[in-house]
Design brief:
The protein is elongated, with a radius of gyration of 15 Å. The mean pLDDT is about 80. It is built from three helices and five strands; from the N terminus they run ααβαββββ. By secondary structure, it is an alpha+beta fold. A hairpin with a 3-residue loop joins strand 4 and strand 5 (about 90-100). It starts with a helix and ends in a 7-residue tail after the last strand. It has a domain at about 5-75: Dihydrodipicolinate Reductase, domain 2 (2-Layer Sandwich).
């Protein structure tokens, strides 16, 4: 686990720190804002429980048009950043952004 404890105390939790960016992206792709949101998470490590956070989350978004978005986020990714988007219209069009060699922030 590479998050410093002090950061976890002020990060706002996985939903504010991470998931909100994925919600923005899905809203942009769909062209709407959701009318219903359901989210849940689990802390598999004691450190996350100590700071009142979770390390794995699932968020389900229901849009007025009938579109449904599903966002899975985990703070545990041993292979690096695993970011992907799947859009389904009449077929699934997977888009994979490989950041495994990303040296950034």
């Amino acid at each position: 686990m590479n998050c410093p404890h002090h950061y976890l105390l002020v990060s706002g939790g996985i939903f504010i720190d991470s998931v909100v960016h994925d919600i923005d992206m899905v809203n942009w792709l769909v062209g709407e804002v959701p009318e219903t949101v359901y989210a849940m998470g689990h802390a598999s490590h004691a450190l996350w429980r100590e700071v009142g956070d979770v390390d794995t989350s699932a968020t389900l978004l229901k849009y007025p048009s009938g579109a449904v978005g599903m966002i899975d986020v985990s703070r545990n990714s041993p292979v690096g950043y695993d970011q992907r988007v799947e859009v389904s219209v009449k077929m699934i069009l997977p888009v994979l952004l490989d950041l495994s060699n990303f040296e950034g922030i």
